[in-house]
Amino acid sequence: QVQLKESGGGSVQAGGSLSLSCVASGSTSSACAWSWYRQAPGKERELAASITRDDEAVTTYSDSVAGRFTISQDLAENTLVLQMSSLRPSDTAVYYCAARRCGSPLSIFDYWGQGTQVTVSS
């Protein structure tokens, strides 16, 4: 099992920046990738960014955040970070940290944090 705990959410005006952190604990070596998902009110949860948990650190971004968000990790500290800039009201959502167990299908993330609220006002 892997436990994930997010922090860093809050309120910001459009154009501003926020940084989210996620600390993993437990059997972290069993996770091969992790990501940030988000869910806006009344909308389905969507993948914002992901990164492989290895030295290659391959990243992917959704079209809606590419160029504005940066995902990074500190493997020694088991910490995942999402640096968000040029924030828009449409970025308002609950942001979830998630981890995929090695061997799981690429579309499946097995472990989830409790989420942290990000609110962007115009």
Q: What tags apply to this protein structure?
A:
122 residues, mainly beta, seven-stranded mixed sheet, 0% helix, 55% strand
Itemize the secondary structure elements and their pairings.
Layout: E1 2-7, E2 10-13, E3 18-26, E4 31-39, E5 46-52, E6 59-61, E7 69-74, E8 79-84, E9 93-101, E10 111-112, E11 116-121
Parallel strand pairs: 2-11
Antiparallel strand pairs: 1-3, 3-8, 4-5, 4-9, 5-6, 7-8, 9-10, 9-11
Gyration radius, in Å: 14 Å
Q: How many DSSP helices?
A: 0
The poorly predicted ranges are: none
Largest sheet: 7 strands, mixed
* Percentage of residues assigned to helices: under 10%
- Helices and strands, in order, run as EEEEEEEEEEE
Mean pLDDT, all residues: 95
What's the total count of β strands?
A: 11
Tell me, briefly, the overall form: globular
- What distance separates the N and C termini? 40 Å
Structural class: mainly beta
What portion of the residues fall into strands of 2 or more residues?
over 45%
In short:
This protein has strands at 2-7, 10-13, 18-26, 31-39, 46-52, 59-61, 69-74, 79-84, 93-101, 111-112, 116-121. It is mainly beta and 122 residues long.
What does this structure look like?
It contains no helices and eleven strands. By secondary structure, the chain is mainly β. Strands 2, 4, 5, 6, 9, 10 and 11 form a seven-stranded mixed sheet that branches. The chain has a four-stranded antiparallel sheet with strand order 1-3-8-7, with no helix packed on it. The mean pLDDT is 95.
